[in-house]
Design brief:
CATH superfamily of the largest domain: PPM-type phosphatase domain
CATH class of the largest domain: Alpha Beta
Radius of gyration: 50 Å
Structural class: alpha+beta
Largest sheet: 6 strands, antiparallel
Strand order of the largest sheet: 13-12-11-16-15-14
Number of helices: 22
Shape: elongated
Helix content: 25-40%
CATH topology of the largest domain: Phosphatase 2c, domain 1
Mean pLDDT: 83
């Protein structure tokens, strides 16, 4: 029996998955093996194009197969799933020697399966497979390394039973169950402590469902990428960003050091301390450059993971001397961070010499630790040192590494600049405050017209000391001037400007100008100061309130330049804000100032203040003034108590602006303390004036002063009659001094001159000046008043 080549080929491949395809690509033969492999019967395939079975580009697959004789082709199984098959082709020639048909044999792609297993095992990410009950089915090599145990110890075990981190276990298990419940993949980020070290590990985890050929969910696969380096890089950047916003929030050296210590614990260390040179704390200029010997430092801040900071041997505010071989001293000497750990010579030697420090670390459970000393250096100036301590345990053995040192150095550098800024601010503020206090009245002396009390509180904010001031200025005729002012701005410049304005007010008050005229002259002065060649135009501005009280008439005249009005508390307890027209701020120029005159009862309390008082608690001016009125209405035993009550009611613990408060209780002179006579412009009245004055002195029991008083009255009345003219008035006031005043209609003020030998006059005022304590002249509504004061007899 002769068999054809086709029969021989079919016989040779019996049992294989085999198909016969003619030259048109039509299936003409289909074996039982092919049915088993693809699910199609011979009846379903024969007569159909073979390309219908290929999943993908059938033309390309056919060309590759004919060219190489073998290829891996994706075929669609009858149940719809995709199967990769390794195909081999054999051509069958006809009688003419040309190919008539092709025999294609197929086997599953074992190489692909083997490659997939290798990929799973050798993947650089952690990969695991779980069943629907969250039990381990497979783990690759990286997953075993992460867990620290071989795959055999995990297979078929419930996941929570294989881990110790309960918190991480709950989150991980939740996502495994979520994949099973929803049939959807899950992506999330997680972090946990690896069994092999202290540092936390960050993970990007992808979970997806695994299904069998029928589409039924049979498990969950996951891939976890260790993104710890990226995570810690982000954490370091976040710490630096937090340091930029969280260190140096106040211009206070101690507060800044505390912010640094609290920032690094616990993210970088378990304990941190900051020690500074005393000169830095006091705001002085420390030595430039490194410290190259034993150094004395003061503890300003420390922080710990443990409540009570048991690691700290040096208490806050205490001083310790660090020997040259200690890590802090070495860091200050070299200007570079020093990293050490227990078991190393220098650190152990230092601890051995400091029994208290060693014992404290032992008691705190810090037997083994890593220490880093980082110098605080800003602008080439050494300020102090920060010491960071990290406890080392078998579970967390990671000592400080290069990345930690770099981060700590950057944080210390930023903190050092903030500390130096605070130091410079402290120095400037101390100088400005000393200048400010030296320019303010040290004691508010008692006056015949008023009883006064005052308070000055410098700002505790970063703005610095301002230019607030107050004054109680004695005037002639037992009158008194009450002054409160505020220079716009802060710092030494504001304090200096305040001193200049205060001096100017005293000078103008000595001339006895009315309040509105005084403010006009003061406004001109501020304009000149602002226009000075050393000042920028408009840089100086100030507010001022000037009040003059006369205890004889009980009249008070008030004028203000951009300043809040005074508050009056009457003896019956009622409180009111004095209504007045406040002019522009000093330095604006070109606008008039108006004076307000009112009569005050004896015992009334007048409160003058700067705007820092009524705006201290973020009040608007009206609300702050209302609070001030309420505080003044409260009963108080003394003016000192009144000041304390007002400050407690209106000021926060840290006022953001300077506050000046002046409280004055008015007095009034009794009628029998004042004697007044109107005199005609007749020289014959000079003797009458002397006689009346002498009789009044006798009634007052002041006969000892009669001789001087007669001379003063004679000279002043004579000058008024001769040079002034009617109306002429003589007034004697007996209070703490004896005051003689003569008023006339002339506005021309007399002045002292040296009389020549043969001059008949010109010596009267000289005698008055020599025989009395003070004398002067002041303008009045109708002319001028010349006055002279002499001391009362002792007793």
């Amino acid at each position: 029996m002769v068999t054809s080549p086709r029969d021989e080929a079919r016989a040779a491949t019996a049992g294989d998955a085999m198909a016969v395809v003619d030259t048109r690509g039509i299936v003409t033969g289909w074996s039982e093996g092919a049915r088993l492999l693809t699910g199609y019967t011979a009846e379903e395939v024969t007569g159909r194009p073979a390309a219908d079975l290929v999943d993908g580009d059938a033309g390309s697959a056919w060309r590759d197969l004919r060219r190489t004789g073998a290829a891996v082709v994706a075929v669609r199984h009858r149940d719809g799933r995709r199967t990769e098959l390794a195909l081999r082709i054999c051509a069958l020639a006809g009688a003419d020697g040309q190919p008539q048909e092709h025999v294609i044999t197929a086997t599953p792609d074992e190489q692909a399966r083997t490659l997939g297993e290798l990929v799973f095992r050798q993947a650089s990410v952690s990969m695991s497979v779980f069943d629907t009950q969250q039990r381990y089915l497979r783990m690759n090599d990286v997953a075993c390394q992460v867990m620290g145990r071989p795959e055999a110890e995990f297979l078929h075990r419930y996941f929570p039973d294989t881990v110790e981190d309960a918190e991480h276990s709950r989150g991980f298990l939740h996502h495994l169950k979520k994949v099973v419940d929803t049939g959807q993949p899950v992506h999330y980020e997680s972090w946990t402590r690896a069994p092999s070290g202290r540092r936390m590990h960050a993970w990007n985890i992808e979970m997806w469902p695994v299904r069998d050929d029928s589409g039924e969910l049979i498990g969950t696969a996951l891939a976890a990428l260790d993104s710890s380096e990226q995570h810690w890089a982000r954490q370091r950047l976040a710490m630096l960003n937090e340091a930029a916003a969280g260190i140096g929030t106040k211009l206070d050296v101690v507060h800044t050091a505390r912010e640094l210590a609290e920032l690094v614990v616990p993210r970088l260390a378990d304990f941190a301390s900051v020690d500074l040179l005393d000169s830095v704390i006091q705001g002085e200029e420390p030595a430039v450059g490194a410290v190259d010997s034993a150094v004395e430092l003061r503890r300003v801040a420390h922080h710990s993971l443990t409540t009570g900071v048991p690691e700290a041997v040096i208490h806050l505010g205490a001083v310790d001397v660090y020997p040259p071989q200690s890590p802090p001293a070495r860091a200050l000497a070299t200007g570079d961070p020093v990293v050490s750990r227990t078991g190393e010579g220098d650190l152990d030697a230092w601890l051995a010499r400091h029994d208290a420090r060693h014992a404290a670390l032992q008691d705190a459970g810090t037997a083994e630790f890593s220490l880093m000393a980082v110098p605080l250096v800003a602008r080439g100036t050494t300020l102090g040192v920060a010491v960071l301590v990290r406890t080392l345990t078998p579970e967390a053995p990671d000592a400080f590494d290069r990345d930690d040192v770099s981060l700590a150095q950057e944080l210390a550098s930023r903190a050092a600049v903030c500390v130096d800024n605070a130091r410079r601010y402290t120095r400037e503020r101390t100088t400005a405050l000393a200048l400010q206090r030296s320019l303010l009245p040290q004691v508010v002396t008692g006056q015949a017209a008023v009883e006064a009390a005052s308070r000055y509180l410098p700002a505790l904010s970063q703005a610095g000391v301002g230019g607030d001031w107050f004054d109680v200025i004695p005037l002639s005729g037992t009158r008194v001037a009450l002054v409160v002012g505020d220079v716009v701005g802060h710092g030494i410049h504001a304090s200096v400007t305040m001193g200049r304005l205060r001096t100017a007010v005293w000078t103008l008050a000595d001339v006895d100008l009315p309040p509105d005229e005084l403010l006009t002259h003061l406004d001109d002065l501020v304009g000149h100061l602002a226009g000075d060649e050393h000042q920028a135009a408009g840089e100086i501005a100030a507010t001022c309130l000037y009040a003059v009280y006369d205890p004889v008439s009980r009249r008070c005249t008030v004028a203000a330049a951009g300043h809040p009005p005074p508050v009056l508390r009457c003896p019956d307890g009622t409180v009111e804000v004095i209504e007045m027209s406040a002019g522009p701020m000093l330095g604006v120029g070109g606008l008039p100032f108006e004076a307000t005159e009112l009569e005050l009862p004896e015992g009334a309390i007048l409160a003058l203040y700067t705007d820092g008082l009524v705006e201290a608690r973020d009040f608007d001016v009206d609300a702050g003034t209302a609070e001030l009125c309420a505080a003044l209405a409260a009963p108080a035993d003394s003016l000192e108590d009144v000041c304390d009550t007002v400050l407690r009611s209106l000021l926060p613990d840290t006022p953001v602006d300077d506050v000046a408060l002046l409280v004055a209780r008015t007095r009034a002179l009794d009628a029998d303390q004042v004697a007044v006579w109107d005199l005609p412009a007749d020289p014959a009245q000079v003797g009458t004036a002397r006689q009346r004055a002498t009789e009044q002195l006798t009634r007052w029991g002041l006969d000892e002063t009669a001789f001087v008083t007669e001379l003063v009255v004679s000279e002043l009345v004579t000058n008024a009659i001769r040079y002034g003219g009617a109306p002429i008035q003589l007034r004697l006031i007996r209070d703490r001094t004896l005051i003689c005043e003569v008023s006339d209609a002339s506005s021309t003020s007399p002045h002292l001159r040296r009389a020549r030998i043969y001059d008949e006059g010109g010596r009267g005022l000289l005698l008055v000046a020599q025989l009395t304590e003070r004398w002067g002249t002041r303008p009045s509504g109708t002319g001028k008043t010349i006055w002279a004061e002499q001391a009362l007899p002792t007793g």
